[in-house]
Amino acid sequence: MITLRGLTKRFGDKTAVDGLTLEVAAGKVTGFLGPNGAGKSTTMRMIVGLDRPTAGEALVGGRRYLGLPRPLREVGALLDAGFVHPGRPARAHLLAMARSNGIPRTRVDEVLGIVGLESVAGKRVGSFSLGMRQRLGIAGALVGDPEVLMFDEPVNGLDPDGVLWVRRLMRGLAAEGRTVFVSSHLMSEMQLTADRLVVLGRGRVLADAPIADVIARGSGDSVRVRSPRAAELAARLAAVGATVRRTTDEELQVTGLSVDRIGLMAHEISVPVLELSAVTASLEEAYMNLTGASVEYGTGTAEARR
Amino acid sequence: MTTSVEPPGVRIGHLPGTPSGGGLPGALAAEWTKLWSLRSTWWGLFGAGLLMGLVSMIMAEATVANNKDPGPEGPPGVVSVGDIATGAVETVQFVVLAIALLMVTGEYATGSIRATLQWVPPRGRMLWSKAAVAVAVVFPTAVLLTLIGSVVAWFWLDEWGRVDAGDLVHDALTIGLYLSLMSVLVMGVGAMLRSTAATLTTAFIFVLVLPITLVNTGSELLKDVADGLPSSAGRHMMNGDGPYPTVVALAILAAWTAAAAWGGITVLRRRDA
């Protein structure tokens, strides 16, 4: 379990992380989502003690990372696949890592096998592709058999096979009761992997809820109705408190009423209906709605959508 | 409708038994493994040995030439082979110091310092384990370099060379001490500056340029200041020619080293990695 209490990081007069209070529970995959510059990586760096918080604290299993006697046995983190010396062979990197925390060297070959790098273990990391470095970083996170795992953008540079593998890995880790905290900007990936979502914008939590709730709260499920007498129907639906948006001459987008109710009400006022379908919001839409106002380096498209 | 079957999760296996180990012994083992798994370490040591032989040869040849055709300072006469080795260390030291320094700044250059700090979060333990491993490599290396320099000098000096077992042991030990302490010193500075080039430049100025500049001013005060610098203290310790006893020379050098290490750890604790 990861506990953040009022975690704050300021760089000069810029606040990167602003009073983050959060619990990342065990046995689940918690997705950490947010636009670039939202403070995701800084938060993760503070959890493992690379950055000093300006205020507040980050605890892993109730303790500060800096106070853990064998941190790799408790927290496995892949923050950046580039945190490796390119001149060192992959196995030597993992071996040094294992030795630092009293992990037997047999475990090194075990994790090399798990991530599928055993055939290149003796090669220097500098010759690795980004995907291979990503796998090496994941092997490093697994080497200590930790209860808490953190991954910052783990599928970067992986091929579709690798992406699927990472998804299975995350699910498997959570199924074993471990805490899995994974950041990503790939919303579709989160929708498939995460149980819970923490959405960050400008260093603040915008949403912290089960993934279904975030989708529902972010944009809400709606119903699409097509009718030649759309205006008439819109007036009737609005009268009972539904939110109605006229998307084209014939088409309405309705929130706050079920498909059944809309169908019955159209029948009551004898308006013909050509199409009636439920529209489930995607995480992507929910995310855009949540973070639209808090994009650090926006191009204006997020704002334009509102 | 097709039913999608969730593939099984990836199994990552378990470590048996209760966790043990780690701590300072773990940090030392990790640094040892890291140092020897880089080619730059081997090349550096090989280069230091080669340069030592070369510089010793040049210095020995200069001695022979001066004896045959004395300059204004007169002929040097018969010299101890260890003196040649000690003189050659002035040049070769930068290769040895670079090996130690790269243990710190090489990790900053590649970003791997952030991995190291995740493995060994206490900043003091991290830097001391690096320093201890550096000393464990640098001291025997220094002894070996003294031997290489002495053997080369002995061959080249011929009749102008003198070999004395006691002197040789003294030279090997003082050169070992000097290079060990200087290694830790540059590692401390490296932890503060986080750059190989900046640290090597600083070391170069402090070790070679500044002492000579201060002495050349002719001012007695500045000469005393020069004698307080770590490199001058080291030189006096190795040559036994200082205005203070060898023990004081060692103490001055050790004090600089301790200050640099303290500075390095303090910066590591305060600044983000």
From TrEMBL, chain A:
**Among its keywords, does the record have Ribonucleoprotein?**
no
Superkingdom as given in the UniProt entry: Bacteria
Q: Which UniProt keywords apply?
A: ATP-binding, Nucleotide-binding, Transport
Which protein is depicted? ATP-binding cassette domain-containing protein
Show the SUPFAM superfamilies listed in the entry. P-loop containing nucleoside triphosphate hydrolases
Q: Which GO terms describe its molecular function?
A: ATP binding; ATP hydrolysis activity
What are the TM regions of this chain, as residue ranges? none
Q: Which family does it belong to?
A: Belongs to the ABC transporter superfamily.
Lyase found in the keyword field:
no
Q: Which parts of the sequence belong to the ABC transporter domain?
A: 2-227
Automatic annotation (TrEMBL), chain B:
Q: Which residues belong to the signal peptide in this entry?
A: none
List the keywords (alphabetical). Membrane, Transmembrane, Transmembrane helix
Q: Which residues cross the membrane?
A: 42-64, 84-110, 131-156, 168-190, 197-215, 247-268
What is this protein called in UniProt? ABC transporter permease
